[in-house]
Amino acid sequence: MDKLIIAGGARLEGELRISGAKNSALLMLPASLLANEPVTISNVPHLRDITTMIELLGSLGVEVVIDEKMQIEIHANTIQRFRAPYDLVRTMRASFCVLGPMLAHYGQADVSLPGGCAIGPRPVDLHLKGLEALGARIEMDEGYVKANVDGRLKGAHVFFDVSTVGGTEHIMMTATLAEGRTVMENCAREPEIVDLAECLIKMGAKIEGHGTDTIVIDGVEALGGCEHAVIADRIEAGTYLIAAAATGGHVKLKGANPQHLEVVLSKLDEAGADISTGDDWIELDMHGRRPRAVSVVVGVFPAFPTDLQAQFIAMNSIAEGTATVKETIFENRFMHVHEMNRMGANIRLEGNNTTAIVEGVPRLKGAPVMANDLRASVSLVIAGLVAEGETVVDRIYHIDRGYEQVEEKLASLGANIRRVPSTG
Ligand code: EPZ
Q: In whole angstroms, what is the distance from residue 103 CA to residue 273 CA?
């Protein structure tokens, strides 16, 4: 497995263009199965998860054309099979969302349950409850969800017990072809949901309320093709801003949307950063200062995102003062804490592993580390940037799932980082 070797101490300084949002593109690809004409998605990041999703569509017989700029054209009507296999769905859980579009457009779907993952069990019960409310007949058979419907799905009232990003997206896209009106309540409000809705509306869907906790969809008979550019990745942008703050640096991110990071920017301001923004750029300058410790409580959008929790702990680990970081979304998302403590951080977990108490130390010490989820992995890279000596981050295929050209982008900001291909 490839490794990243980081020599700590450099301040991140310079400009960077932010890639398209992984968690937006990953749902637009299955949504394209709803269309009767080709759907073209642009500004797609070149990531393993995207490749996995394209492989999945290919395994269904769907023709996918990719150009040199990673512009992806999907021809759903070439579909030949309706079974999404376990080995693909388990590696990338967003694949589960091919189920609803296949069911809505072709009346059948046979999709493996995604299984758990490192950060928690991550069930899909709310997805299945929503699909059944729309009239899907669901059977479980050897770890697969077999779904079918006679005729069209029917619009329904869907209430999510938990605010679920994937569940909101899955039911929203499926309901676009159901007969009649679907009202979804207690929806998630993430920008990626809004982006998906805008893409579906370009395809001819009738959706209102996306970005609020109540979304109303009036089903249509058929959806056409469209061209849609994916929004910038707010989590990638937040990651580089936090890394720059941790190193006392000065960066300007182009293509980033500050409206998608309001809470994160206010927390970085509290940490001592000077922040200026425009419609599509964010600049952060620490003037060489060590960050101040800042406490956060993670929550659903617009609260502080769980996908930036690990990165923020890395910054707090070398900040002035003590901070508490509370994780409210996933059950097991503090694995990076133990690795950072091996680097000399002073972090303890409380509240049945829901809260990290981070006492800032002046410097970490480089060490060999690894993690099992992409955000924890990238937080260890940030820890390496602020450590004395050399840090080796192993299993970086996790990072490659969510960060396009991570070492190139960090090196362009002055980091001393290189990738060592696996010898095995
Ligand atoms: C999306 O995952 C993101 N992935 C995750 O990003 C992100 O961490 C998460 O939302 C929360 O913001 C994509 O968009 C592809 P959820 P998702 O359904 O949709 C529980 C990354 O790093 N739940 O909002 O799977 C669930 O267990 C990834 O890019 C149910 O109980 O998250 C969790 O505790 C990691 N039943 C909570 O809801 C369900 O049917 C939030 O999960 C569905 C979810």
A: 49
